[in-house]
Design a protein that fits this description.
Helix content is 37%, strand content 16%. It is an alpha/beta fold. It has two domains: 156 residues, Aspartate Aminotransferase, domain 1; 262 residues, Type I PLP-dependent aspartate aminotransferase-like (Major domain) (Aspartate Aminotransferase, domain 2). It has a seven-stranded mixed beta sheet, with helices on both faces. It has a four-stranded mixed beta sheet with strand order 1-2-3-15. It binds pyridoxal-5'-phosphate. The site of pyridoxal-5'-phosphate has 15 residues, from helix 5. Pyridoxal-5'-phosphate (PLP) binds next to helix 5.
Length: 430
């Protein structure tokens, strides 16, 4: 197919995610021919640096030779098998490794196949845990401005109006407390404690995105909030769910964000970077305490009966194992320190620009907000278009411009990303 064939046939049939389809009249689709490392290449030979890791999933570049090799080996061995009553080596190896790498005490793993499903699993497990103990706690507590995915349960516990508001009438029960990313920590903790004190009889879990509310416009907060929130959850006997779907696997500078708070949550949800950006896969990790609340004779009816057809897919597990090999063999967390410094230097320059505020960074995530533009103006799209014309893929969230590059990026390529963003912002007419 030619470039224009693909575009034409695509719009004839395909409904894209996170899109007003009419927008494609103004901002045409870009068919991508191939990817290599941090670069994406279209049919006209234009190359773009994937500075947002294709929606935060890619860690070691596109068409990574090592991951490719491991996938080919797995493909010739076992592509898939039912995961009830059967098991396989890639899943077992992955489970062992994740238990060793995640905070102490997360000994059990439940597989699902995307981030939102992992959130659904964690919510159901937490609710079901209390039910198995004779307590009905139908409400999930979360932070204002949080995002946990877009299936009904996950959407319900999130708080970004853009995704949620339309569906208000069909959502499950949730409550939101002040986010430490939007007010001072003490105020946020007081709000959390007040709600727990009053409502904990109805609340099974408190769910957070540790350190960075990513889809909530890349708002950041300190690890001390998590440490103190965990203590409050313990005091009121409410589960803590750490949604590390976006921040896990090195994004915040440590392998997992919870490490910085020294906290073991009751549930940890992982996806996105888990397979290095190759295949859909997610896991919910939990404690022996939670697991034991479901473990009994069949007739007692306490089992967790959640299932997805592709649970624990061996090819996806092989991609995850290859990704963990790369973390181990190439000291990625230490090597990223250099990139983190480059990003911090590059970000500092934006302070010169009058229309930039709230420059912030947590590890491999950098962001700033644009200010002073008319609210109806789609300022992020202007940045997107300019950057694309200069060979960089950025996708601002509203007026928040952010960088979340693959770890395979070189300091020079990262400089290029930041300079293009700088020029893009400078070129904006007031
Ligand atoms: C992306 C994301 C999800 C949802 O994952 P999907 O695979 O897109 O369903 C949930 N939580 C957070 C924090 C995310 O960034």
């Amino acid at each position: 197919m030619t470039n224009s064939d693909i575009k034409f046939q695509d719009l004839k049939h395909i409904w894209h995610p996170c899109s007003q389809m009419k927008d494609y009249e103004t901002y045409p689709l870009i068919p991508i021919k191939k990817g290599q490392g941090v670069w994406l290449e279209d049919f006209d030979g234009n190359r773009y640096i994937d500075a947002i890791s294709s929606w935060w999933v890619n860690l070691f570049g596109h068409a990574n030779p090592y991951i490719n090799q491991k996938l080919k080996e797995q493909l010739d061995t076992l592509e898939h098998v039912i995961f009830a009553g059967f098991t396989h080596e890639p899943a077992v190896r992955l489970a062992e490794r994740l238990v060793a790498l995640t905070p102490e005490g997360l000994n059990k793993i439940f597989f699902a196949d995307n981030g939102s499903s992992a959130i659904e699993v964690a919510i159901k497990m937490s609710f079901h845990y209390f039910k198995n103990k004779g307590r009905i706690r139908p409400t999930v507590l979360s932070l204002k401005n949080s995002y946990h995915g877009e299936t009904i349960g996950a959407l319900s516990v999130g708080d970004v109006a853009l995704y949620k508001e339309t569906y208000n009438e069909i959502l499950i029960r949730s409550m939101q407390v002040l986010s430490p990313a939007l007010c001072d920590e003490e105020t946020a903790l007081k709000d959390l404690e007040a709600v727990l004190q009053k409502e904990s009889d109805h609340i099974c879990a408190f769910i957070i995105e540790p350190l960075v509310q990513c889809a909530g416009y890349m708002k950041m907060y300190d690890p001390s909030y998590i440490t103190k929130a965990k203590a409050l959850c313990e005091r009121y006997d409410v589960h803590l769910i750490a949604d590390e779907i976006a921040v896990g696997f090195g994004r915040t500078g440590t392998l997992f964000a919870c490490e910085q708070a020294g906290v073991t949550p009751d549930f940890m949800c992982l996806s996105k970077g888990l397979t290095g950006g190759y295949l859909p896969l997610s896991v919910v990790m939990t404690t022996d305490d939670v697991y034991q609340a479901f473990y009994c004779d069949y007739g007692e009816g306490k089992a967790f009966l959640h299932s997805h057809s592709y649970t624990g897919n061996p090819i996806a597990c092989a991609a995850a194992n290859a990704t963990l090999d790369l973390f181990e063999n190439e000291s990625v967390i230490e090597k990223n320190q250099r990139l983190i410094r480059s990003m911090s230097e590059g970000l500092a320059r934006f302070a010169e620009l009058d229309c930039v505020e709230k420059i912030r960074q947590r590890g491999m995530i950098g962001a700033f907000d644009l200010k002073g533009f008319a609210p109806e103006r789609r300022i992020g799209m202007e940045v997107y278009e300019y950057a694309l014309s200069q060979g960089v893929l950025l996708r601002p969230l509203g007026g928040s411009v952010y960088f979340m590059p693959p770890y395979a990026i070189t300091p020079e390529e990262l400089d290029r990303v930041l300079s293009v963003a700088y020029e893009a912002v400078k070129s904006l007419r007031p």
